Amino acid sequence: MPESSVAVVILNWNTRSMLERFLPDVLKNSNHPGVTVVVADNGSTDGSQELVKAKFPAVSLIRLDKNYGFAGGYNRALQQIDSTYSVLLNSDVIPASDWLMPLVRHMESTPDCAACVPKIKDLKNPEMFEYAGAAGGFIDKWGYPFCRGRIFNHIEKDHQQYNEAGDIFWGSGAALLVRTREFNRSGGLDEHFFAHMEEIDWCWRMKNRGKSIYYIPQSEVFHLGGGTLNAMSPHKTYLNFRNNLFMLYRNLPSNKLRKTILTRLLLDGVAAIKLLISDGFGHTRAVYRAHRDYFKRIPDLRRERNNLLKNVTTTTHAEIYPQSIIMDFFLRGMKRFSDLDFKN
Q1: How far is CA 275 from CA 132, 159, 226, in A?
Q2: For a designed S-S bond to 129, which of 105, 149, 152, 268 qualifies (C-beta 3.0 to 4.6 A apart)?
Q3: First to last CA, the chain
Q4: CATH number 3.90.550.10 is the correct assignment for the domain at 6-225
Q5: Closest by CA position to 69, among listed 182, 183, 196, 226
Q6: Would you tell me how many other CB atoms lie within 10 Å of the CB of residue 128?
Q7: Rounded to two decimals, what is the model's pTM?
């Protein structure tokens, strides 16, 4: 392990059982000189903090006074970290025994890399990629996120087909290694997102600043989480639709902003009808609320966008798929990342 220090930061909110189950493996597989495991607790009331103090004395505990969400919790936690690197790690992740070294080595050798991610696989079915991040994230020209190994609800088996390290567009917040100082200087995750897509927004900001986001397949973690659109709660549907519009408005180049937003609003309308048929009125109402709250925030988003534009050095990214992933997936039957043609 290189000499640089690393903090493995697990954000927790009322997931005591997860900490009890997963922390022993995180500690065992992160046992390197210079590595500290940290639990940042978002004001839990289930005894999580007491468990950490009693059962895991080697773990550093950051006590936050309330639930600030994924974005706010990590922002406040990393402001208290002085390690060179920080890993944002979900509380339901078991890392492989040699997971940290490949990530840190890449960051040490690549100064312009803002973050890197491991291969994320399904803890319940370790031969499969995991929904949240799989083998690195991308977006299409309309801003729909997808991964190598997972497009919408189609998840691939890992046949080592994505075992080549390389640039990606975004890395999952389930296991994301960042430069602590750069993360804090950038403003961290946008807290208006609260949860969902804030890490994609942050990665996009970093790429617009000329930084890279990298996938390291030699590092693996196993994630319990995951899901599909049909399994979402209406609140999760609301956050995903609203936050996607926030992300697009903040980061798109000016010559693509209007067309992309208008197209997304129309596509969201189609999705709302589909959700009404398949999942009921609650999800359709969630899409309506997402659009309503997006329009309410446009004055603030415009100010945020103008500030972000001051740091933009490039808006051309090879990791943005130039086609519509919806058209390719649903109409052309292109279910795997390897089916996609990024050149056209």
Answers
A1: 21, 33, 19
A2: 149
A3: 41
A4: yes
A5: 196
A6: 18
A7: 0.95
CB 72 within 8 A of CB 40: no
* Three-state SS letters, 183-198: HHHCCCCCCCCCCCCH
- Chain Cα centroid distance, residue 36: 22
pLDDT in tens, 35-90: 999 999 999 999 999 999 999 999 999 999 999 999 999 999 999 999 999 999 99
The full DSSP string for 197-244 is SHHHHHHHHHHHTT-EEEEEEEEEEEES----GGG--HHHHHHHHHHH
Give me the residue label for tokens 């043609």.
341
Cα separation of 125 and 201, whole Å? 29
Tokens of 8: 């493995």
Maximum Cα interatomic distance, the chain, rounded to a whole number of Å: 57
User: For residue 14, what are its two tokens?
Assistant: 């009322």
* Sign of torsion over alpha carbons 191, 229, 333, 270: negative
Domain coordinates in residue numbering, the chain: 6-225, 230-313
